[in-house]
Amino acid sequence: MQTELLTLLLICLETISQEIVMVAKTHSTLLIKYMDYSDAAVLQFKIPEDVHFVSFKFEAEEIEESLFRCEPNDIDVYLKSGSPPVINPDNSELPKHFLNYSGPIEELKFTSNKTCHYINVTSPYAGFYFAAAFIAYTDPRLRAITQQGLTAKCLTVLNAELWVIKKPRPYIIVPEKQEHVILHPRTNRIFKFYVSDYTEYVILHMKKIKFCVDCTKIKLRVQSHRIPNVNESLYSMDLTKEAYDTKNFKTQIMTVEDSWYYVSFNLDSKTDSEAEFAFTFKCFSTYPSNDTQLLFSNETKIFPLNINSTRYYKHSILRNYASPYLHLNLSYNQYNLVREGSIENFFYSFDLHPDTDGSVPSSVNITNNDMTALKFHINPATDIGGTLQFSLAFKPRIRKKGAAREIGEESKQVTIIGCLRNNGKEIPTWPNKCVLDEKETIAPIILNRTLKNSTVYVPFPDAGNWYATFKLFCGKCEPCECTEKCRQELNSCPQKCEMECDSVNLCNSCIETCENDIRDHKACSNCNCDGPCLKASDSCNASVLFAAVSFPCISGKCGSNGKCVYLISEGVAYSVCICTNHYKGWDCSDSSGANSKGVILMELLLLVLSNVVFLPATYIAYRRGYYVEAVVYFSTGFFSSFYHACDAGENIYSFCIVNLSVLQFSDFFCGLLAIWVTIIAIAHLPHPWPSICHITGAILLSFTTTINKTAIWAFAIPFVTGIIILVASWCCHYKRSKARFPSKRYQCIIFPIGIITVAFGLLTYAFLQTNSNYMYLHSMWHIVIALSIIILIPNKRSFLPASVESSE
Length: 808
Description:
It is a single chain. The chain is an alpha+beta fold. It has four domains: about 20-165, Sandwich (Jelly Rolls); about 170-285, Sandwich (Jelly Rolls), CATH 2.60.120; about 320-395 and about 405-475 and about 540-550, Jelly Rolls; about 595-790. The protein is about 25% helix and about 30% strand. The strands form ten sheets. Strands 20, 21, 22, 24, 32 and 36 form a six-stranded antiparallel β-sheet that branches. Helix 3 runs antiparallel to helix 4 (about 505-520) and helix 8 packs antiparallel against helix 9. The protein is elongated and about 125 Å long.
């Protein structure tokens, strides 16, 4: 279905003379099952500028590396722009105070059956897109423990391609230069302009609009950072013929500094008639263009501009229409922070500009009359792989009391609301909201007398400009009872002034007069609002301390149940936590899958104490004269006990006498050697062949165990070889003695019971073990193997026939 839709889309695009081209391709990226973020393959795709449409094509397949057939796996792909996606496929809890701010994450689920699947994005952001791909997560407790050689060995690989449509390209325009546009039906005319660091908003002015006879409306769309589309744009206006034919149109566009803005025009017409108009735009700034000294100042100040300048004076920075609660002009102080790097990966911080004496200010003074904004820049690639940590706190009020000093308390009625956002200044509003473009979110930072500091964490922060905005509120919130009519006047009047004025003095005078006239009316006398509250008559102030720092993982660590690691996948560098003890989550704090200490202790005791059964096996082998075998059985129980004492216990009750890898080798080697010497003992070889087989087997088993201790062939080789030797030896004894060998009792009773016991243990070990039942079944495996040794180790009275026993 998706393939048919893409084909149809390509046909449609071809008919309108647009071209889709492939710009990037990755091949054979290996995928593994998701346990934590380190298992995800992170891919990056660079999207060119001015792209209308992009399609990410994914195809997964299974590569067979054994005789068994591979079944398709479920594949998950998560895609987002700016930084790797923050995901939790295991449904683990994100840490407290996590601000998972990121763009929309596209999710794609499919199977690895060589079928193509697509993620299509209209009007994508320019820059890097990141995809996290992996085999779908399943509960590890229910996952089977398989043995190499008994199941299919498969490689799951992912192929990805990036296709884009770049035509038609936008036309670059500059401020105050009039552009004449002839608009054809069912086509887009796209323009783009650059907003400098100190531009706060622009006025777009369309003049001499001429509709054709059959034209119905002109669609105007404005978007930042990317080309606008039908379903999503920052500003969207439909200019109808009835309202705007032969007339002018103006609109105000709030802008984000240091960004490209795109404007598109589209004509609705029943025929091929054309429409035409001219348009221009003006930039309004809070900075004088010739004030270079201001670039090194911490505080944003508003100065009059030269009337002949191409930038115009702005009475206020953030307009009331940006929030449904604001009905006043809100000014703010902006501090451009300085980045301080480090040689450690993903560790950097931001500070205020140094003062003239070289000292760095440690605090910011704020009042309830203004908002404060801190601006800092996250670099692409090098800065996005850690966790951004932003902290805000009241600066202690230190008072002198004689010769002593004491810390004073903050006022009960003082509250600071803080916001943190990428590529946009959010407005803090009472009681706990952040507002941008009329969209509300819960404020991540709130300070008051009882909560004097607060910290938020942003994992994998998007590249670009970040703004931390906060505002001081004092007094109680008294509802601002402003009528709807007054609200509309306050919303429209200042904007109208700014769009009509052509000089500094006229702008300033018009806005102030308009605001005062509205509030002088008796019906609007209560409209002096600060958000949903009446603006406090009292003024208050405070000093705050802040910290904007990036660390790998979470503050450089992952708690007591994980470790922080650095990873590079397809050229993307990032840091993640690898959890232990069955913990999960971004900082390994989610204990929903972890065992209790009682269960952990029981697991340790079962796996260790089950090896005690090897002591009776050792004693019986010694009593029956099998001294080499007795040493091997004792070593098997000894190393298995200490291996599980080190491996189990989940680092809580673990005890390691040497390195775990040494104990693991010793455990597997002694286990295989125990199988080998037991078969040689049952074979009843004449002297000196038992010694030769023992030393030869020990050498070969140490070699195979070093190569791969868990492969099925490591078990099969000594078992099959030993059975061949056993059968050959029994046949030789039979031919030599002309009597049944071994005894009828051993052949018909003891040997079958022993073989059934061994088979039961092997089937349990190879096919029934899972992560959840491992401690039970593996402990049973220890007991079954030790019991089989006790049963099978030959007893001359029951093993040898009477004729052979008398001859020996």
